[in-house]
Amino acid sequence: LEVTISPFLDEKGHLNGVVAVLHDITQIRKLERMRTEFVDNVSHELKTPVTAIKGFTETLLDGAMDERETCREFIGIIDQETGRLSRLIQDLLDLSRIEHKRVNTRLKIVDLLAIVRSTASKLQGHAENSDIELSLDLQEKTMPVKADSDMLEQVLFNLIENAIKYTPAQGRITIEVDETEKNYTVWVRDTGIGIPPEDRNRVFERFYRVDKARSRDMGGTGLGLSIVKHLIDFHGGTVGVESTLGQGSNFYFTLPKANN
Ligand code: ADP
């Protein structure tokens, strides 16, 4: 709490009283702290691959280049780290685009099920390549929501892509949509590795990963779910996950029904 006190004088300049103004600055402080944390996080995430790229390049230039096998291995790592860097930059650009859009977008009435179908079909090939069955269990009707269709597509894309990433071959992914009086709930269920109970609330935080090494190998940046949460918050919905370790995860998000 910040207090500003100003004297209240009469025409002759005599003190007549004081005016005290109380400002609640906790919100401002909180935002400032979030920004600083974000910049720290991003810098750290960018530095890791750059350090690796620089390290391996220097070792190559110092002579390791003469050995063909070492050369191949190091360039492989450099290629991987460059890919990671570029995905990270892409995710950051997405985040900034979303921020920009959030201010400038007018939400429209769109059909949730149509967006679910079209996004799932875009990832069908990817699922097949990983030997995973991706199926939809949807009703034949329209489900109107007030939304930005690109943003919803991004939400579904991130959830389905994760389900594919964290599900071993021969697994299954099912997408369902439930409804209550006021909301629709979209479920993306997988038969993958699952999430330990202590991590379930944290996976929606920026850069949070249950298993850093695994996420790295899968090309993860730790930003996907934070983008999902951000977008769903913006639409007035909620996100969550239920999971059994070793058996699978059920990610869900809700959206308010559009009142036509
Ligand atoms: P990443 O780029 O690492 O996948 P996300 O923000 O998309 O980042 O997800 C954060 C973490 O949540 C992941 O690193 C992973 O540990 C966990 N996770 C996300 N989706 C799933 C899933 N379907 N099954 C198991 N773990 C998951």
Automatic annotation (TrEMBL):
This is histidine kinase. The gene is phoR_1. Residues 1-37 form the PAC domain. It is found in: Cell membrane. Residues 41-259 form the Histidine kinase domain. The chain holds residues 333 to 592 of 592 of the full protein. It comes from the Bacteria.
